[in-house]
Amino acid sequence: KYDWTAPYTLTKSSNFFFNACQIRVPIRAFHCEKCHQCVQNQIFHSDLANRCIGIDNRLMYYCLIVSEMLLFLWMIIETFLSFHMGKSTPMLLMFILPFNLYLLIQCCILFVQLSYLILTNSNVLETCSIIGLKYFKFQSIANNPFASSDILGNLSYFFMPVGDYDPESHEINSKTIQQSKKFENYCQDIQHYKSIRFIEDSP
Question: Residues of the chain whose pLDDT is less than 70?
Fold first, then answer.
């Protein structure tokens, strides 16, 4: 089993070196400046959850986004029905509706992008925002050696129990992957966006 208890999980076979902390990190583990630790399969740092979303909690976060999206949709419908039935004033509608609509849009953006991440086994390079709405910049499929054309395979990877996950066997268990053009492009991307570089020598 893989040990996730340490804030920095080091592996004897890791060839990925994080420049800022000067340590080797598992493949697809990225550093969070807010958490001050490396998170395996990091998606982004959630202010709502007050922690990074990674391999250990991404399924729960996805369920949270789905439930919040349905909640805000219900609140918007309920607000309109209440106004239509004369149970709320226009002033109340004017204050409540924009707030709920804004949160619903944010949840929809996260839902769509997380669904894309699940179906493609993609990597998030950075988190961007427009008028406070967060969205992800994904690594292109052409640069992602971990993406499978088999959607069911990507789904099984996402729903894999954390205790069964090992980055060396589930991410890069073949030298063929390391020698591929996609892997070279992946290394260039994470060096540019995450300050993590691939080193050829074995630790």
Answer: 1-13, 161-179, 201-203
Place of tokens 């598992």: 26
To 5 degrees, how large is the angle CA 52–CA 121–CA 71?
55
**118 is written with which tokens?**
């699940």
Coil/strand/helix, residue 75: helix
pLDDT score recorded for residue 192: 92
pTM above 0.85, yes or no: no
Strand-pair category, 44-46 with 51-53 = antiparallel
Q: Minimal CA–CA distance to 131: which of 158, 106, 163?
A: 106
Which residue in this structure is represented by tokens 């509608």? 93
Is residue 54 within 8 A of residue 124, CB to CB? The reply is no
Query: Computed from CA positions of residues 139, 141, 143, 145, in that sequence, does the dihedral angle turn out positive or negative?
Result: positive
**d(Cα 113, Cα 33) in Å, to the nearest integer?**
22
CA distance 200 to 184: 12
Tokens of 46: 């959630």
Pick from 16, 57, 14: nearest CA to 35: 57
- Reference 203, options 6, 1, 10, 9; nearest CA is 10
